[in-house]
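[step 3/7] inverse_fold.run input=structure_tokens len=430
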């Protein structure tokens, strides 16, 4: 499939559509959550019987005057950008309490409002996270490997060839996965991402009630966080990187406030540290790995285009192993893995022991606690050195490790003689 910005093309299904098709016939209310621009409204509109657009001032004014209009109409009722009228959450919850028929409401939200609902909605409104387009959804290459088959423990045979090159991956990182901002013209693409970032700082944060006393400092912190992509750098080090050479650094509480605000906008998408339910593993690091919701934001915040990434250019303030392109490629892999894993009711974490002696980029955890281990390598060829941590984890977990794979920039999917799968990222699908 090919994503464009034109509205003349029909809606292209996303991975989350299958989740919605599965859940909506049974659940009375679903909340689609994610940052602006990921396509929540388009996806929800496909199945909406009526729509309440709360980002329309006229419609919002009418609903504030007569709130009962919000929950009256053909179902499913789509309540778009519900956080602009926080009372809508409680209205839906009470409506579900009175009538729990399935498929009544779909809420979409691009932020967690400062005026929180009086009730969490647990058991009534089921949240569903939506992220930017995966490589599979962008249609850059036919996929031949299913993550769901890997997660179910069947250890499928792996095959397929892709012509996707390192330059293509770098270009996809720079373009990003926001459906409405995938412009073929590089200048238009940069302008769209710049506008998106400007809106976060200048509009979205104030709308959340976050007072940004010094927007320039906020932007520097945002850039420093982008520079920390795919690392577990402490927030103090990020703060120091944002204010290098300055004596008057923002207070730690201010920096944490920035982080909380971006989290509420769904812009940050940290991968948590794995906390195994057994005692096979000891002395694991608990710090998350930092990621923005789309690596294109990180590249743009740091002013890096495809050529700069391929040349090895990257920030120096945050130490890392390997190139910054490698970190962004890992972030691109995280985007796909989290979307596909969510569809399988699995979660994604990372593993790192104290001192970094052993490290696995991603640990996909099923509901029964069994796991799939995933390493990400910015290379086409995989050597024994690249899979040493996967072998170590197999020794620790035994049969609890369902499978182990390496995501690469190569051309062929296959299994090594030791059973470890080698999969070009472009060939991985749900």
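[step 3/7] decode complete -> sequence:
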């Amino acid at each position: 499939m090919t994503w464009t910005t034109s509205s003349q093309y029909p809606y292209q299904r996303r991975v989350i559509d299958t989740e919605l098709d599965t859940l909506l016939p049974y659940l009375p209310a679903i909340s689609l959550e994610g940052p602006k621009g990921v396509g929540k409204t388009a996806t929800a509109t496909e199945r909406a019987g009526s729509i309440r657009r709360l980002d329309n001032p006229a419609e919002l004014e009418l609903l504030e005057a007569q709130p009962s209009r919000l929950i009256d109409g053909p179902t499913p009722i789509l309540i778009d950008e519900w956080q602009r009228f926080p009372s809508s959450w409680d209205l839906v919850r009470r409506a579900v309490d009175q009538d729990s028929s399935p498929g009544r409401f779909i809420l979409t939200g691009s932020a967690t409002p400062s005026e929180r609902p009086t009730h969490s909605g647990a058991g009534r409104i089921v949240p569903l996270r939506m992220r930017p387009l995966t490589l599979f959804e962008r249609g850059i290459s036919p996929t031949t490997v299913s993550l769901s088959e890997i997660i179910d423990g069947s250890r499928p045979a792996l095959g397929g060839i892709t012509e996707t090159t390192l330059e293509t991956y770098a270009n996809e990182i720079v373009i990003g996965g926001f459906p409405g901002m995938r412009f073929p013209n590089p200048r238009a693409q940069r302008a769209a991402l710049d506008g998106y970032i400007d809106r976060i700082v200048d509009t979205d944060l104030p709308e959340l009630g976050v007072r940004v006393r010094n927007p320039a400092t906020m932007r520097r912190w945002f850039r420093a966080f982008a520079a920390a992509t795919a690392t577990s750098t402490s927030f103090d080090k990020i703060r120091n990187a944002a204010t290098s050479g300055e004596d008057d650094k923002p207070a730690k509480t201010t920096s944490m406030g920035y982080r909380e605000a971006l989290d509420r906008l769904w812009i940050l998408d940290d991968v948590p540290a794995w906390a195994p339910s057994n005692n096979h593993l000891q002395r694991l690091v608990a710090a998350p790995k930092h990621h923005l919701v789309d690596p294109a934001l990180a590249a743009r915040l740091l002013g890096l285009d495809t050529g700069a990434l391929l040349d090895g250019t990257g920030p120096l303030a945050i130490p890392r192993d390997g190139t910054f392109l490698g970190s962004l490629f890992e972030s691109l892999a995280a985007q796909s893995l989290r979307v596909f894993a969510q569809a399988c009711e699995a979660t994604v974490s990372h593993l790192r022991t104290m001192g970094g002696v052993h490290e696995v980029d991603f640990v996909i955890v099923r509901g029964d606690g069994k796991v799939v281990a995933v390493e990400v390598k910015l290379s086409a060829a995989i050597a024994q050195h690249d899979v040493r941590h996967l072998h170590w984890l197999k020794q620790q977990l035994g049969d609890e490790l369902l499978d182990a794979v390496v995501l690469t920039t190569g051309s062929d999917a296959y299994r090594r003689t030791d059973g470890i799968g080698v999969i070009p990222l472009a060939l991985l699908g749900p």
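[step 4/7] annotate
The CA atoms of residues 116 and 261 lie 14 Å apart.
The two ends are 15 Å apart (CA to CA).
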